[in-house]
Design a protein that fits this description.
single chain; 137 residues; mainly beta; four-stranded antiparallel sheet; three-stranded antiparallel sheet; 3% helix
Length: 137
């Protein structure tokens, strides 16, 4: 068994390493924060009253993933957030969250806001899906 590689010193191909494994750090003593994942879909009158677009309440018809992360005793300036296509990596001095997302997202289109009074970071990410009979936009 030989692996064809441009660099003779590599022992595996990049295809063999699962996406997001570079973030795994089992020895990190920081606590995992509480979080909640919800889905959001954009509906109009054609969906609510007429059912013309074929959307249903399932996650298959949702356009956005909303992740709310509780970060007590944290300042906005202490938060480091990295979003990849299938992974969310959040780090603060006291907390660390490595979250494998349920759907691939567009890592360039997203927004995050820190609700300081509630001590919650709210991250909204656009789901990246192939076009089908439901997701045609």
């Amino acid at each position: 068994f030989q692996v064809k590689s441009e660099n003779k010193k590599t022992i595996w191909n990049t295809e063999e390493v699962p996406e997001g494994s570079e973030f795994d750090d089992t020895w990190d003593p920081r606590e995992k924060p509480e979080y909640e994942i919800s889905f959001k879909q954009h509906v109009g009158t054609e969906d609510v009253f007429f059912g013309m677009t074929g959307k249903d309440p399932s996650t298959a018809c949702c356009e956005d993933i909303v992740i709310k992360i509780k970060l007590p005793e944290t300042k906005y300036s202490d938060i480091t957030l990295d979003i990849q296509d299938k992974v969310l990596d959040l780090r603060t001095p006291k907390k660390k969250l490595l979250l494998h997302l349920p759907y691939p997202v567009n890592s360039k289109e997203g927004r995050a806001r820190f609700l300081s009074e509630e001590e919650i970071l709210e991250v909204t990410l656009r789901v990246s899906r192939k076009l089908d009979f439901i997701n045609f936009s």
